[in-house]
Structures are given as C-alpha cells and as structure tokens.
Amino acid sequence: MNTPNPMTPAERPAPIDKIALNPEIDDLNQQDYKWGFVTDIEQDSLPPGLNEDTVRFISAKKKEPEWLLEWRLKAFRHWLTMTEPTWALVDYPAIDYQAVSYFAAPKSDADKPQSLDEVDPELLATYEKLGIPLAERAALAGVAVDAVFDSVSVATTFKSKLGELGIVFCSFSEAVQEHPELVRKYLGSVVPQKDNFFAALNSAVFSDGSFVYIPKGVRCPMELSTYFRINAANTGQFERTLIVAEEGSHVSYLEGCTAPMRDENQLHAAVVELVALDDATIKYSTVQNWYPGDKNGVGGIYNFVTKRGACRGARSKISWTQVETGSAITWKYPSCVLQGDDSVGEFYSVALTNNWQQADTGTKMIHIGKNTRSTIISKGISAGHGQQTYRGSVRMLKGADGARNYSQCDSLLMGDQCGAHTFPYIDVKNPTAHLEHEASTSRIGEDQIFYLNQRGLSTEDAVNLIVNGFCKEVFRELPMEFAVEAQKLLSVSLEGAVG
Amino acid sequence: MSNDSDPLHNPLLSIREVHASAGGKAILKGLSLEVGPGEVHAIMGPNGSGKSTLARVLTGNENAEVTSGEVLYKGQDLFGLAPEERAREGLFLAFQYPVEIPGIANSTLLREGLNAMREHRGEPELDAIDFLEIAKAKADVLEMEPTMLSRAVNHGFSGGEKKRNEVLQMLVLEPTLAILDETDSGLDIDALQVVAKGVNALRDKGRSFIVITHYQRLLDYIVPDFVHVLANGRIVRSGDKDLALELEAKGYAWLEEGASA
Question: Rg of the Cα trace of chain B?
C-alpha cells in the first residue's frame, strides 16, 4: 500500500484564521441575472448533468432568494476550478459528475413498494435482527403506506413543544423560507463554499437537510433526531445541516439510523456546520449505515462528507460521536475549530469496514483560543477485505496558550485480508501546548475465540463481546438508546466475519 | 467396554485408543482412559509426552487433530460437539496459558459463560446483581480481591493471578468435568494451597477432575484417586497416589524406556 500524500493545503481547513476573524459570508450583493434560465422548472427531475442551469433549477425549485442562488453559483464556479482529492487511502473508479442526476423529486406513492411483501427479504431480515418496530420497517424500506404517519404526528407534537422554547428544528428548505436571516448569517461560516472539492459541490447543489437553532440560555429538552423527519423529502444525496447554539444553550442531535438505508444515489456529499457561541454545548451523534455494497464489493454508497464545528464562544463545547458501519467508501473528518478561549472539542468514533468496504476517516482539532482542550478517541475495526485509515490532524496555533490534546487511535483486525492504517498529523506552534497521542493495533486471536468458546460462548458471541469491549469508550458517549442500537448494528455488520 | 450398557458403571468420560497429532506430528498414540463420576485423576509425565495435547483434544482445540479413536462423554460422542457445546455440557479447562482479552471485564465473561450454560440447561438467566453476589463469594474462597472481577480478563495479570483466575472461573461455572492443565506451575506454596482449597471445595461425587501436573507437590493438596503416567503418547502406568511419590523419587526415565519399546 502506498503512503498517500498528506492533506493538501486545499483540503485543510485553510482559511482558519479568516474564519476566526471574519466569518466567511460571501459577497451578498444582489446581482442581476447574467445567465439565461432555460430549464423548465415544472419538471420533477433533472436528466444527468451539471452546469449552472442545474444549480439555477434546484434553487428555483426551492423558491430560494436571490442571495442563496448567487451563493450556490459562486460555489459551483469555484468547484469547476477544483480537482477531486486523491490523498485519501481509498480506491474507486473515477466519478463522472456529468452522469449524476442532481435533482429528483420524491418518488410518487405509485412508484413505491405497496407493501412489505414487495421489499427485498434480506433487507427485512436485517430490520428484524436490529429489532426495528414493524411500523418503522415500512417507512425505512420506502413503502407507500400510512404507517409512517405515526412518526409524523409524533414529530409534530415535539415540534410545537420545541417551538414554545423558541427552538427551531426544521428542514433546511423550510429554514431558508422562514428564517432567512439566520441561514444567511451562518451558512458557509464554518465550511466555506471553497473549503474542498466535495463541500463546493454540495454548496452548489445541496438538496435539503436540517436546520436547528437553539436560543440563548435554552437547554433543548430532548434529543433532536432526523428520525422524526424520516418521511421528509428525499434529502439523502447532498444533505446540508446547520446547527446554531446561542450563548449558554445546549443541544444533542442524533443523525442517521441504524437501519440499513437503501438509496439509488451512489454519490453522497453532505456538509454539516455547527456553531457554538459562549458557554454553548453541541453534541452531535451519528450512526451511519448506508448500503455498503454486497459481499463482492459491488455497489454501495460513496460517502464524502465534510463536518465541522466552530466553538466560536468562550467555554463552548462541541462533541462528535460517530458509529460508521455503512457505505462502500467513507471519506469523513468531523472537526472542531476551537476559537473561543477554554473551548472544548471531542471526537469519539467507531468505524467498521467489512467485506470490501474502505474508510478514510478521522478528525481535525484546530486550537486557536487559549486553554482549548480536545480529545480524540478513534476505534477502527477491519474485517474481510476491509481497508481502514485513521487520518487526524491536531493543530495548535500561536495564540493557543495552554492548549491540550489527547488522542487515542486503536485498530482491531479480524482475519488476514484486511488493513488498518494510521496517519496522525501534528502541528504545534505554541510552546505551552500539550499533546498526547496513543495508538494500538490488535487482532482478534483464534486463541481468544477458543478461550471464550471454552467458557460456553459461541464464536459469534465471542466476537461481539470482544468488539463491544473494544468500542465501549465510544459507546458510552452515545445517548443510551443509540448505544444499544449501535451494539446490535456492529454485531449484524460483522456476521460471518470470523469462523 | 462391556460396562457401556450398565448405567451404574457408566464412566463420565471414556477415552478409547485416541491418536492425535499437532503441527503434523503424531503426539497421542493410542491413549485410553476412563474417568468415573466423582473421581480425581492425576496425569503426570515428561515434557512432550502429550499432556497438553490431551487437554486440547478433549476441549476441541483446532491445534490438535484427532486422527483416530473416540471419546464418549456422558455417553455421547464428544468429537461431535463444538467447543462451546462441550463447555455447556460441563467440560471445563483451566488453561495452562490463560489468554488475555483486553476490553472485556472478568465479570462480564463469567456472567456470559454462566448464562450460556444456564440457558443450555433450560434455567433462567441470572441478572447482574444475583450474579455478582455469587462471583464475589467465589472470589472470597480464593482470597481474591473483588476488584479482580472488574478488571479485563487476564489483562496485565501476574502469572499467579491468571492461574487463580482460571480456578475462579471453574468455581463459578461449576463444571461436571474439570481439566486443570498445569495450574500449579508458577504458583508459590501459599497460592498453591489457595488453588487446592478452591478445587477441593468443588469436589463431590458427581464431579470429576483431570489434573495435569509435573509435580507431586500439588497432589499433596489435591489428593487424587488415580495417578497415570503419560509417556510417548500413551498411558504407560496407572496407580494410586503412591505412584506420584514413586515418580518423584525415581523420575520418568524407567517408565519411558518401556513406553518406546
């Protein structure tokens, strides 16, 4: 395996200092239409292809204000000048961006499976193993039935309760219509349009996503979950999430779902931006289980995600917890920009690659403010022919007096066909900063399995016990219910990996 | 063999003419042994005679390959059972080299194991609180700190702690047939007495032991009903506890000559 190039300057969150001083809100001058508008916006989906008209079509479909269209176009024009990054340790055929369709309306009910009987039995078997309630199985499998209405009404109830506290939790499109001033103020302020190739693409063509706003001093009384929007319009492919936590507020957000989600779109490029002001805390938990391809590595989602949180205020805290078991290719580095003095960034990750999955994932902790602290706990599990890379960057800038980082990267291997790789990048410009890095690689040994067999455990239970033990530092960061699901998910994902 | 049909004389374990190899090399060469309920059998013998291979054959470790012969355990074909099925049927091995498993607490392993066996016997699972009470009482017998229960399985344990931990597992799992593979090696005399106390606490008329050891010393504390000498892959002599004393005095050489002839 060749050593990949280190992150190129373009891939690093380059304009950090600029972010710190001057949140990048692009020139919002209203501009005249310079480009003709040719696409018929009455049509429901676009043929494959990407040009400025595609961007205009999407924006028009969503009835977006002029400034947002210009914002998208600026991203698109910059994207045209960029090249796809190749430094990640993943291998996939070149993507033809002109062969992708960038807008498709949700399927009509007539096109959906009419009942669970029409759904792939293998998918249903997995739902069963994960213990997903019957009503939700239908929703997840995209069945056109009333079962999903339960979750809609639940969501509506929660929404009104949240509304009383001034909390906004809605789709991104809704936010653009109803809270344009907030969107305009924060969109792209953490992940600028030009940040990287995939972020630029997302900025140009993002379909929908989530928006959360927690007012000053409010502690969100429940976990916010995209699950409540499970039947919302097809948001998967180019999702855009923005969470803003005002001074002294607190929110825990759950993204994703343990159920395997089928999606016909192979290319996914999401952007998530988090902003925490003074004394605010954002906890962002993800369970990602997109279709990983079959046992022979055919199919599967390409997941190129840019997630970044800005701890803009003093004593603010952003915590990322992720359990990544899906996708054929994962390219993902949830990061924290620690601008406020005494701010805290955390990254807890379990990533699993089985069969032919490849993952290049990790985090970036950028220490700018004084006495900023960060913790990185990364647990990688490789089985089958899975290839996994931890890639992390810890930067302590000049002003980061007394900054501290602790990193721990552990890899667990099963079998002899898989691989684990670790690339920690460390850049310290302040002599008072303190940094610790620990790493380990271990293999589930046949002797360990036999020992547990001899105590009465089946091989499958033995593997699960070892894997859960390996991951427990991360699982305990997950909200209780999510942690239980995550354990089940790992065991289902590892079925047949040993023995 | 004619005793098979007579339930009164049915042995718990009947090893018949077993041949087995490890790493392509023949180790066991026609070993036969019968162990009745409640009996303690000591197996002694020089290095390389096949003692540990016997333990592997009985527990189903893939590192030992059975080439011929059969073993009946509780009247059923032992080789037809997977390692975990043998364990659930009450076959226990105290490992010569206990395996370290970071990340899994000792108590978790014990509870999972015990519940797997209870489930096999059709008994309800023990909850964490009931289990912990049992485990703490057993640890007490072995003069182990209760904190040992929350440590990762054998991880960072001293040699003596590992051996004691094997015996703790045996006390909790209460096997029908326990094989102790050189459990005494690496133990000082105090630890040896503690371990023997644990084994003796389990002895009863329904439970049998195969004690593999190099040293007569252990047998002062765990007094066997039978002593067998294993040499060159076969049992070359059997006797009572006095045979162990004789071996201590004379060594194995006089028996080995006979075995290889």
Answer: 18
Among A448, A450, A460, pick the best mutation site for testing chain B contact (most B Cβ within 10 A): A450
Q: How confident is the model at residue A68 (pLDDT cuts 50, 70, 90)?
A: very high
Q: Best of B52, B101, B115 to disrupt the A interface by mutation (most A CBs within 10 Å)?
A: B101
| CA separation for the pair A231, B71 (Å, rounded) | 60
The residue-averaged pLDDT of A410-428 equals 90
Does the structure's ipTM exceed the value 0.85? yes
The number of C-beta contacts closer than 8 angstroms across A and B is: 74
Which of A457, A459, A470 is nearest residue B112 as measured by Cβ atoms? A457
Question: Which pLDDT score is estimated for A135?
Answer: 58
* Residues A348/A354/A357/A360 CA torsion (nearest 10 deg): 30
Whether A220 and A252 have beta carbons less than 8 Å apart is answered as yes
pLDDT of residue A110: 59
pLDDT at B1 over 70: no
- Residue A172: φ, ψ to 5°: -60, -40
Distances (CA, A) of B60 to A45, A65, A101: 61, 71, 56
List of chain B residues whose C-beta atoms are within 8 Å of the C-beta of residue A472: 103
DSSP sequence for A44-77: SBPPS--SHHHHHHHHHHTT--HHHHHHHHHHHH
What tokens does B115 get? Answer: 């519940």
Q: Are B99 and A448 a contacting pair at CB < 8 A?
A: yes
Chain B positions in Cβ-Cβ contact with residue A459 (cut-off 8 Å): 84
SS3 call for A274: strand
Q: Do B120 and A456 touch (CB under 8 A)?
A: yes
Q: List all residues 6 or more positions away from A332 whose beta carbon is below 8 Å from its beta carbon.
A: A303, A304, A305, A307, A322, A324, A359, A360, A361
Q: Is the pLDDT reported for residue A302 higher than 70?
A: yes
Gyration radius from chain A CA atoms: 22
Average pLDDT of the segment spanning B220-243: 92
pLDDT, averaged across chain B: 89
In angstroms, the Cα distances linking A174 to A202, B77, B175 are 18, 69, 65
Q: Give this prediction's pTM.
A: 0.79
How many Cα atoms are found within 13 Å in the side-chain-facing hemisphere of B158? 7
A359 forms beta bridges with A330, A388
Cα A163 to Cα A166: distance, rounded to the nearest angstrom = 5
Nearest to A37 by CA among A66, A14, A9, A15: A66
* Phi, psi dihedrals of residue B246, rounded to the nearest 5°: -65, -40
Find out whether A320 and A348 touch, Cβ atoms under 8 Å.
Answer: yes
Tokens describing residue B224: 């066997």
- Closest in A456, A458, A466 to B101, CB measured: A466
Tokens, residue B121 = 């016997």
d(CA A396, CA A365): 8
Whole-angstrom CA distances from B178 to A252, A412, B75, B209 are: 51, 33, 17, 5
| Nearest residue of A to residue B95, measured between CA atoms | A451
The pLDDT confidence band at residue A156, using thresholds 50, 70 and 90, is low
- Within 13 Å, how many C-alpha atoms sit on residue B154's CB side? 23
Which of A273, A278, A158, A272 has its CA nearest to residue A224? A158
Average pLDDT, chain A: 80
- Pick from A451, A454, A466: which is nearest to B103 by CB? A466
Are A441 and A411 contacting, i.e. CB atoms less than 8 angstroms apart?
Answer: yes
Is the pLDDT score of A44 beyond 70? no
The pLDDT assigned to B84 comes to 96
Q: Specify the residue for token string 């019957």.
A: A134
Residues of A at the B interface, defined by Cβ within 8 angstroms? 442, 445-448, 450-459, 461, 465-466, 468-470, 472
